[in-house]
């Protein structure tokens, strides 16, 4: 009995070669990506010492891994990222917006959503974690990735302002200022533990935008 060919086998020889090549490229790319992520998590070794810069360029900031959920003492704080902007209006005047709580926007988008996007859940949160990990308490960069983390966070908040802030949409953003609001998660009613419920702010300096960012090149 003759069974009709299906899938790749049903293609002509030329298309089979193209399909096989594409699958091979995808497989190689997946293996390289997994290896890069593994090397960033593994203890320091000969490969990471010699090719550390190339490995970090591949992984950070989009593919950085965070294992705090599994730490002996998980995070017990809610951290919100907020931003305000200095906007050049059409009449030439400058206007400073109020604080926009970007984390609250993400929370509202996730609440009740059975399939929230990875961007809504992680983009802003991981960008802030990346910045905090590469800067000291004085907001000065520590290490080579500090400048990258600043640029990454700045481009995200500018993109979000152009999308959601009415004042920003009517003009051109010149500068942005970011702050975090950290609030302790309150213990359950039966606990004797008492923690402050007042937010603690970390205020970053004003950041000037590059010409492409101000022109909406990150929208």
From TrEMBL:
Sequence intervals crossing the membrane: 20-42
One family name in Pfam for this protein: DUF5819
PROSITE patterns (UniProt xref): PROKAR_LIPOPROTEIN (PS51257)
Annotated keywords: Membrane, Transmembrane, Transmembrane helix
Protein name: DUF5819 family protein
């Amino acid at each position: 009995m003759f069974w009709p060919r299906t899938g790749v086998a049903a293609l002509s020889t030329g298309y089979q070669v193209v399909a096989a090549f594409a699958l091979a490229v995808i497989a190689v790319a997946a293996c390289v990506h997994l290896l890069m992520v593994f090397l960033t998590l593994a203890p320091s070794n000969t490969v990471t010492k010699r090719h550390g810069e190339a490995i970090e360029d591949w992984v950070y900031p989009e593919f950085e891994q965070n294992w705090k959920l599994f730490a002996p003492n998980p995070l017990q704080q809610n951290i919100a990222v907020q931003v305000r902007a200095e906007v050049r209006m059409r009449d030439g005047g400058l206007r400073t917006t109020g604080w926009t709580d970007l984390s609250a926007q993400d929370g509202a988008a996730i609440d009740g959503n059975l399939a929230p996007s990875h961007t809504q859940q992680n983009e802003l949160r991981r960008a802030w974690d990346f910045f905090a990990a590469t800067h000291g308490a004085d907001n000065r960069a520590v290490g080579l990735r500090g400048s990258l983390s600043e640029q990454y966070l700045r481009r995200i908040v500018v993109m979000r302002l152009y999308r959601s802030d009415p004042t920003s949409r009517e003009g051109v953003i010149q500068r942005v200022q970011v702050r975090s609001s950290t609030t302790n998660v309150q213990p359950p009613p039966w606990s004797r533990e008492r923690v402050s419920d007042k937010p603690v702010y970390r205020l970053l300096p004003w950041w000037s935008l590059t010409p492409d960012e101000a022109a909406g090149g990150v929208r």
